[in-house]
Design a protein that fits this description.
The protein is mainly alpha-helical. Helices cover 49% and strands 4% of the residues. It has a three-stranded mixed sheet with strand order 1-2-3. The longest helix has 16 residues.
C-alpha cells in the first residue's frame, strides 16, 4: 500500500490483483488506485457492455450485447504470466508426443481447439496446472467428457489417457 501527499492509501493494479487473488471476496470499492483515470477507462471498456455486470453500472453504461461477443472478449483476457501468454502451446503439446499415433491425435485435437479459438484457454490451463503442481495442490483424476481430450491429459488437467481407452474427442468438443 502506498500513500499520497494527503495521507490517503492507494494501490497499483498489480497489488490490487494480488489482494484479489488472496481474497476473491474482497470489496475493492474501498481501494484508491494509482491512476483513477486509467482505472475508470479500463473499467468502462472492459465491463460496460456485459449483461452480467450491467446491474452494477450507471444507466448510461448499460446496453445489450450478444453472448457470443461477451464470450469472445472474456476469452481474450487471461491473467497469467507473459511466458504462458506467448507459449507456443501447439509446439509444446507436439513435443510431448513420442509416437506417430499420439502426434496425429494431438494434431486432430489442436485443429478442433483452434476452430473454437481456445488456444488461450489451453495456455491458461498449462499455467494453472503448473501453478497447482508448484504449490503441491491435489486435484482429481478427471471426470466428465473432458477426459476424452488427449490434449488436456498431456497438459495435466486430468489423468485419464483417452488414447488408451479409445475415447473420441468429439465427446468433449460438441
Amino acid at each position: 500500500m502506498k500513500y499520497n501527499q494527503f495521507g490517503q492509501a492507494y494501490t497499483d493494479t498489480e497489488e490490487l490483483f494480488e489482494l484479489l487473488y488472496e481474497n476473491p471476496d474482497l470489496d475493492i470499492s474501498r481501494f484508491q488506485v494509482e491512476d483513477p483515470g486509467q482505472y475508470n477507462q479500463a473499467r468502462e471498456v472492459t465491463y460496460s457492455n456485459f449483461p452480467i455486470v450491467q446491474r452494477y453500472l450507471p444507466m448510461d453504461y448499460r446496453e445489450e450485447v450478444p453472448i457470443e461477443l461477451f464470450d469472445h472478449v472474456q476469452q481474450q483476457n487471461w491473467y497469467m504470466p507473459e511466458d504462458y501468454k506467448t507459449l507456443d502451446i501447439a509446439q509444446w503439446l507436439m513435443d510431448q508426443c513420442d509416437t506417430d499415433a499420439k502426434l496425429q491425435r494431438v494434431g486432430k485435437e489442436l485443429m478442433l481447439y483452434q476452430e473454437r479459438d481456445l488456444f488461450n484457454l489451453l495456455r491458461y490451463l498449462k499455467y494453472f496446472v503448473d501453478t497447482m503442481r508448484k504449490n503441491s495442490v491435489v486435484w482429481g483424476l478427471g471426470r466428465g467428457s473432458s477426459v476424452s481430450s488427449y490434449v488436456l491429459y498431456l497438459i495435466g488437467v486430468h489423468r485419464i489417457d483417452s488414447m488408451y481407452y479409445d475415447l473420441d474427442i468429439e465427446e468433449f468438443l460438441r
